[in-house]
Amino acid sequence: MKNENMLATAPIGKLLIKYSIPAIIGMIVNALYNVVDRMFIGHLPEVGSLAITGVGLTMPIMTIILAFGMLIGIGAASNISIKLGQGKRKEAEKIIGNVITLSLIIGVTLSILGIIFGNNILNLFGASENTLYYAKSYIYIILGGTTFSILAFALNNTIRVDGNPRLAATIMVVGCLTNIILDAVFIFKFNLGIQGAALATVISQIITSVWALEYYISGKSNLKFRKSSLKLDKKLIGVIFAIGLSPFMMQIAASLVQVIANNSLKVYGGDLAIGAMATISSVNLLFLMPVFGIDQGSQPIIGFNYGAKQYDRAHKAVKLSMMAATAILTVSAIVIQIFPEAIIGMFNKDAELMSISTRGVRIYLLMLPIIGIAISGSDYILAIGKAKLAMSLSILRQIIVLIPIMIILPKFLGLDGVWIAQPISDIIATIITALIVIREMRSIKKLDKNENEIAHSRIESD
After folding, report:
1. How far, in Å, CA of 203 to CA of 176, rounded?
2. Most exposed residue of 287, 360, 371, 427, measured as fewest CB within 10 angstroms of its CB?
């Protein structure tokens, strides 16, 4: 009740800081699971450039795993916030058990399918004779831990909206530090190479998922876990998937883009161009994670206040989110344009790979300052429960606009065409998202005004 009262009455700026900072830490830490692996792998003696290319080939699979984590975790977190705002506490509590069961079922299914069809999938994703070995060595171990990855991500989201964002961040930080330490030990002390990096990631995810489970099972949580809630409820699954579908589709679209990009990169730049994209994607991920953290922190604020019909507070939250995202990404863009070699050098020192990567990152992230508007705007639409519209905006940026450009431009511009496709897509998506968000806000304000006028007239008539 204390947490719900705070969401309804505390200053929006203070709430955004309270919820966003732990979420930012959690998102950065989540990204570091993959990024740190790539840093260590890229510096493997003699084979670093090919090894990081192999990891680059697995990125679409990693993205698909993350997509299912988001489908369950973000869908559940948003629904919990909305139901608490509506005063439906028992339904919010039942979601927790369904999250655990869904994570187990989907995680095991993905592991089995991925291992059975892994060889064919990697060849489809652009693997060559030189890079297939490294890709398989890494992803097969990762696939074995898929269940823990999805469960950790999903429960971490629910812990945050359960009123314990600090614990959610702590769990992720401990997991990341464990991953970094084990990376160094497995790769360089035990000489396990790329397989050591994958093993370190899986062990870290096991730790975070078990810790998150313990929070609910031990009774420490505000929303109480009951064994009966493990039984899947079709209605609850429907509402979880309805809201989680937008970020899920965004990640699936990102995976599809990665597949198309890898194949284009292989044609126009060779294996090293795929390695360059793996590095650029890692840099992009690190820059975007604070924005995703801000948006995740704003979701319970927006969702609760929208559910409680306090629309001005919900709108103020999204405006502050956009301002913070734009500021962070503007600074990030300046840094990457001035110091590309220093940032790329954290992943690999190979001269040819460095040359391809530094040119690529400057072009690929050219529109970084404006995409916070597109991301925050889409998440706002999601937080107020308009899942189909949010999904449409996600598909717009990653599929409808980006994929055709990525297919067409390289035919005329070669490798540069692959890099340029992203900033063009960012411009178009940002403009459209901004217009839709403005329209939605005006529509809600008009509805609120009409409701107030009706209520006022009733009071006068009485």
Report:
1. 10
2. 427
